[in-house]
Each structure stands twice: as structure tokens, then as C-alpha cells.
């Protein structure tokens, strides 16, 4: 009797704990929405009030690090092999990056954020003009370089380690320089569990809010009579079905095509509002707002409003909430960005991720937000300010003050729908990627399963009023992940230094005097890994003989040379004493280094039997970096000493080096 077996690529070590945690939190939020929301809100409030400095410093570190990398020597390193080419055109790449990174949020907050800042009581003492300027400035701050730096750190680390080191597309891979092969075990599973839960919570809450806004739009158009749960079920069923079809078709087809359509739709809506709204005012306010953002960049970055007690609640509920929100979304967006960024250079990646979406966000927020404020001040007589607390309906209320209101509303709903689908399909793709440890080919039922789980739990929470609790949970997870992201920087710094050194490393200095005469002996030396006794023998014979012969020859020329041996570490030193300038020193000592675990199991190097190899290393009196001299013959070692002695004589003969070569340090040698 044959047993039917379901094919799966899911990793039990990641999926089982993740689903348990996800279902537990969602069920608590649905069954006990008030209790769960109050509990999680208390935790969130404690973090925002007492630990907000962690977010401020972390986000600042992300921005400064990426800017440094963009202008550093590491900027030319390619995310992939040195000859790799990008998989997608620049337009498709930016479109997908943009749709995943901001998505529904642009439509939800395009009008709402500036109107909420503009009408907030904390700014009531300011003039309407000043409130309008501040509203734009804070919106730029929250949707600008800082937000994209958060995504950029995760995306860059993932793209670098997966495309260049050829590790799995998984957050665990970003810890390879720190954990090495431990990323394959429990440590790696823990990191991926965190990433999967954070991604699921972030997407579920965002899709829940997206459904509410779509329902509100359909209600304003008269397509549905009310914002009911039945309508929300229909909306979710249709949109998630489209998302599943898109996700199943893959990044190259569904996600890429929808993202391109999305960006074109957004541009059409943008130009529609720009040219049919207060055009001159919008262009002028954008120009002034951009200058205001640039001039205020550092004061905004470090401002914690600690001296302004009245501003503290606003600061916690906006700036800190945004940093936490972007950080909680970073695993999802970073994974997706990494997937589509292979072949770009680090400089190209950072410049595109930081600047292009930021500039577009500024234009978008200026056109929509400033239009709404202008209408509110000049036509609506405060009506839009009164709607600021209802962001679901505010976008459609704003469109009523533009020509072709019905067309614009239908078009806006269509864009929100496509944003919903692109966020959901890329979310399914990313979650399946995390859950399978980046399996190359997975059965399609898994993607469908993630879609059903997303939609089912989003509807459950919408019906029970538990979305706010889940949003709080999402924001809480951002605190530990901000620390994880700081460790990504440590990993990147370590890996990039090794990468640069690998490709820039020149031939060893020991190869300079080589000829083809002793090539067989040199080959044996190169492929052998010396034990301690062999190196000790080299120092006691070849090195001592070379130094002794040099000592005699220097004496023939009237120069006294001291020859010393030392035991800790074992070595031999040749020293020429001077009264006015530093002594000339050339020595060789025993040193060791660890051998890579990979080489211990390498059949082509059969004599590697232990994890340390020993070698004789040169050293000098001026603390310059020495090198391995084990392949030198006696005469080549003599030649190397004379080469350094000639350099020494040239340096001390130049007047400009007088202070540098003074004999102060000789007193320490006596």
C-alpha cells in the first residue's frame, strides 16, 4: 500500500516555532483584544519613553555607515561575482524596491500625515504658515533617508553575503563572519524565526489597514453601502487571490510587472494632482521644503525633544513609532531588496536605495500633503483638518476638491489595490524564502498557504478589533532587531575588509628575488604546512648562518653588528647600533597562524594535520609589518637584509627625516 507524501521544502526548525508564536499572539489579540492591546501597549510605551535613544542612535548609525560606505573604497565592490550583471533593468529594479518598501503607506499617509501634523494641538501656538512648513519637514524626516537607511542596511548585508559569499538568502547569513558555521544550527534558526514572525506581523497589520482604506474608498464611490466586515471578507478574498497568482508566477513575471504598473499609476496620479491642483504653490513649497530638510538634517537626526515636555508624546507617537515601524519591516523589505539587487555595486545600491525613493517620497508627500493643506486653508475652511483623525477616508475627502473627482477616486482605489497585491505577493515570497532557508524551488502550495494564513489572520483581527494589538507587537519586536542590525554592520565591516584585502593582495614580498632555479624546492615549501620543529631548525641553521656571514662582512667594512638570539618567541636578531639615529634591526622569529577548517579536509593538501601552522617571520626596528621568509635561501635572506639596510641608510641621510629617525628610542634598547 503506497502512502501519499506531501512534498515540502519547509524547515521544521524555523516554521514550527514561528507558527506557534504567530498563532498564539493572533489568537490572544482576537479573543482578548482589549487585554492584549493594553498589555502590549504598556510594553511599547515603556520602550518608546525609556529606550527611545536606542532607536535614535541606531538609525543615526545606519545613515552614517551607509554614507561612509558609498564614498569609501568599498563602494566599487559588486554584489555578486566581479563580472556579474544586474538581473533587472534599472526602472524595474527601482519599481520593485519602491513597491515593497513603501507600498500602501504612501497612499495611506500621503495626505494624512501632513494634515495630522498641521492640525495637531502641540503646534497650535504656531501660525498656519509655520505649521504647514513644520508638517512638511517632519513628513520628509519620517519618509526620507533615515527610513531607507534602515531598509538599506538589511538589504545590503543580505545581498552582499548571499550574492558574493553565495550563502542562503536568509538573515542568518549576515552573521557568517561572526558565527561561521554556527549559522546552520540553532543560532541561525533563532534569527530566521525572528525574521519570519516580524515579517508576518508587519504585513498582516499593513494589509489590514489597506483593506479598511479600500473599503472606505469603495464606500465614497457608492460601490458599497458601508464599511462592513462582509465587504472586507470579499475584498481580502479577491485581492489575496490575485496576490497568490502573482507570487506563484515569481519575481520575474507577476511581481515585476505589477510593480512597473504600480509606479506608472502613481506617476499619473501625481501629475494629475500637480497640474490640476495649486501647481505654483506646490513647486515652490517643495523647493523650500527640500532646502529646509537639508539644512535641518542633523538637528532632526539627533533631536530627542528632551527639553520640550509638551513635544515628548508627539515625538514618541510619530518619530520613534516610525523608526520602530521601519525597523520591524526591515527583514521583509531587506530580503526582497537583496533578491532583486544582485549585480549592482555597493555604491550604486546605496545611492539608489537612499536617494531615489527618498526624492520621490518628498515629491509625493509635497504634492498630496501640501495640496491638502492649501485646500484646507483656502477652500475647505478647515474641513480637511477635521478629517485628519480619519485617515481611511481623508484621501478620498481630499480628492473632492479636485476636478474629475470620481475618476481620481476610482484611479486611487486601483492604485491601492495594486499596492496591496504587490505588498502581499512579495510578502508571501519572502516568508516562504525564510521558512525554507532559501530553497531554490518550492511547491506552489506553500506560497498559497502563506497567502491563506495572511488573509485569514488579518480578517480575524479586523473582525475582533485586534489589529492595534498586533501593531504594538510589531513595534516591540523592533527593539531587539535594531541591535541585530547593528551587528550586521559589524559583520559587513569585517567581511568587506577581508574582501578588499583578498582582491588587492599583491604577490608576497618573498617572491621578489625568485628565479626559476629552485622551483621544485619552492613548490614543496609553498604546499607544505610547517610544524614547530621544522621552523626552529630553519631559524637555527639558515637564518643564523646568513646573519653570521653578514656580521663578518660588515666587520670587514668597519661596522659593528650585534647578533642576538631570543627564546620567547624563538628567533634571531641582527642589530647595528647608532648613537644619533635609531638602530637598524632585522630579525626573524617563530610565529604561528590558524589553518582554515576547510583546508584540514582538503585532499589536495595532504600534509595539513593540525589547525595551526608555524612559519619564520621577519621583523624590523621601526615596527613595519614583516613577512614570511620560509622560502628564502641563505643568500636570498642576506640579500633581503641588505635591501632593508640600504633603505635605512637612504632614510637617515635625508634631513627632513631627522625627527623621525632620532635616537630617543635607542635608550629603550640599551
TrEMBL record:
GO terms for molecular function: transmembrane transporter activity. Coiled coil: none annotated. The keyword Transmembrane helix applies. Its main location: membrane. It is found in: Cell membrane. It is a multi-pass membrane protein. The chain crosses the membrane at residues 12-35, 47-69, 90-111, 140-162, 193-212, 232-251, 263-283, 320-337, 349-367, 407-435, 447-469, 475-497. Keywords: Cell membrane, Membrane, Transmembrane, Transmembrane helix, Transport. InterPro entries: BCCT_CS, BCCT_transptr. One of its GO terms (cellular component) is plasma membrane. Belongs to the BCCT transporter (TC 2.A.15) family. This is Choline/glycine/proline betaine transport protein. It comes from Paenimyroides ummariense. The lineage of its organism: Bacteria, Pseudomonadati, Bacteroidota, Flavobacteriia, Flavobacteriales.
Amino acid at each position: 500500500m503506497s502512502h501519499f507524501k506531501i512534498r515540502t521544502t519547509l524547515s521544521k526548525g524555523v516554521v514550527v516555532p514561528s507558527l506557534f508564536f504567530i498563532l498564539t499572539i493572533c489568537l490572544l489579540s482576537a479573543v482578548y483584544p482589549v487585554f492584549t492591546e493594553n498589555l502590549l501597549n504598556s510594553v511599547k510605551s515603556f520602550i518608546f519613553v525609556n529606550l527611545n535613544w536606542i532607536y535614535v542612535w541606531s538609525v543615526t548609525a545606519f545613515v552614517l555607515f551607509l554614507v561612509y560606505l558609498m564614498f569609501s573604497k568599498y563602494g566599487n565592490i559588486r554584489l555578486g561575482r566581479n563580472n556579474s550583471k544586474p538581473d533587472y533593468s534599472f526602472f524595474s529594479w527601482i519599481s520593485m524596491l519602491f513597491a515593497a518598501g513603501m507600498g500602501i503607506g504612501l497612499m495611506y499617509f500621503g495626505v494624512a500625515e501632513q494634515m495630522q501634523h498641521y492640525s495637531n494641538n502641540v503646534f497650535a501656538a504656531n501660525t498656519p504658515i509655520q505649521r504647514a512648513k513644520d508638517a512638511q519637514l517632519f513628513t520628509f524626516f519620517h519618509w526620507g533617508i533615515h527610513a531607507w537607511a534602515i531598509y538599506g542596511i538589511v538589504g545590503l548585508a543580505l545581498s552582499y553575503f548571499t550574492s558574493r559569499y553565495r550563502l542562503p538568502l536568509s538573515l542568518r547569513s549576515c552573521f557568517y563572519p561572526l558565527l561561521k558555521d554556527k549559522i546552520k544550527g540553532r543560532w541561525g534558526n533563532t534569527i530566521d524565526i525572528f525574521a519570519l514572525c516580524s515579517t508576518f506581523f508587519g504585513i498582516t497589520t499593513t494589509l489590514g489597514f489597506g483593506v479598511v482604506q479600500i473599503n472606505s474608498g469603495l464606500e465614497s464611490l457608492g460601490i458599497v453601502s458601508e464599511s462592513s466586515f462582509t465587504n472586507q471578507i470579499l475584498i481580502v478574498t479577491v485581492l489575496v487571490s490575485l496576490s497568490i497568482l502573482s507570487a506563484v508566477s515569481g519575481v520575474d513575471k507577476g511581481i515585476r510587472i505589477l510593480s512597473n504598473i504600480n509606479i506608472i499609476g502613481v506617476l499619473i496620479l501625481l501629475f494629475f494632482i500637480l497640474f490640476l491642483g495649486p501647481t505654483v504653490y506646490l513647486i515652490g513649497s517643495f523647493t523650500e521644503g527640500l532646502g529646509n530638510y537639508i539644512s535641518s538634517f542633523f538637528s532632526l537626526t539627533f533631536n530627542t525633544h528632551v527639553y520640550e515636555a509638551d513635544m515628548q508624546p508627539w515625538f514618541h507617537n510619530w518619530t520613534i513609532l516610525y523608526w520602530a515601524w521601519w525597523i520591524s519591516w526591515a527583514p521583509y523589505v531587506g530580503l526582497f531588496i537583496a533578491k532583486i539587487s544582485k549585480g549592482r555595486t555597493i555604491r550604486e545600491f546605496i545611492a539608489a536605495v537612499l536617494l531615489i525613493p527618498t526624492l520621490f517620497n518628498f515629491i509625493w508627500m509635497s504634492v498630496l500633503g501640501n495640496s491638502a493643506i492649501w485646500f484646507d486653508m483656502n477652500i475647505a475652511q478647515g474641513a480637511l483638518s477635521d478629517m485628519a483623525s480619519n485617515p481611511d477616508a481623508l484621501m478620498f475627502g481630499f480628492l473632492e476638491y479636485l476636478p474629475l473627482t470620481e475618476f481620481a477616486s476610482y484611479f486611487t482605489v486601483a492604485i491601492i489595490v495594486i499596492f496591496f497585491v504587490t505588498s502581499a505577493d512579495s510578502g508571501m515570497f519572502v516568508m516562504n524564502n525564510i521558512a525554507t532557508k532559501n530553497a531554490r524551488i518550492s511547491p506552489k502550495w506553500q506560497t498559497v498557504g502563506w497567502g491563506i494564513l495572511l488573509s485569514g489572520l488579518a480578517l480575524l483581527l479586523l473582525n475582533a478589533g485586534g489589529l492595534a494589538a498586533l501593531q504594538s507587537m510589531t513595534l516591540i519586536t523592533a527593539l531587539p532587531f535594531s541591535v541585530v542590525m547593528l551587528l550586521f554592520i559589524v559583520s559587513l565591516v569585517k567581511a568587506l575588509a577581508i574582501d578588499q584585502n583578498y582582491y588587492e593582495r599583491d604577490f608576497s614580498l618573498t617572491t621578489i628575488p625568485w628565479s626559476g632555479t629552485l622551483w621544485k624546492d619552492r613548490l614543496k615549501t609553498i604546499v607544505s604546512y610547517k610544524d614547530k620543529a621544522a621552523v626552529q631548525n630553519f631559524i637555527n641553521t639558515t637564518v643564523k648562518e646568513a646573519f653570521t656571514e653578514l656580521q663578518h662582512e660588515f666587520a670587514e667594512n668597519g661596522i659593528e653588528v650585534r647578533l642576538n638570539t631570543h627564546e620567547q618567541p624563538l628567533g634571531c636578531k641582527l642589530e647595528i647600533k647608532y648613537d644619533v639615529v635609531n638602530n637598524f634591526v632585522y630579525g626573524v622569529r617563530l610565529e604561528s597562524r590558524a589553518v582554515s577548517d576547510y583546508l584540514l579536509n582538503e585532499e589536495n593538501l595532504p600534509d595539513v594535520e593540525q589547525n595551526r601552522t608555524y612559519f619564520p617571520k621577519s621583523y624590523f626596528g621601526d615596527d613595519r609589518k614583516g613577512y614570511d621568509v620560509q622560502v628564502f635561501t641563505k643568500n636570498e635572506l642576506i640579500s633581503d637584509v641588505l635591501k632593508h639596510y640600504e633603505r635605512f641608510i637612504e632614510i637617515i641621510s635625508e634631513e627632513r627625516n631627522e625627527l623621525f629617525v632620532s635616537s630617543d628610542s635607542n635608550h629603550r634598547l640599551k
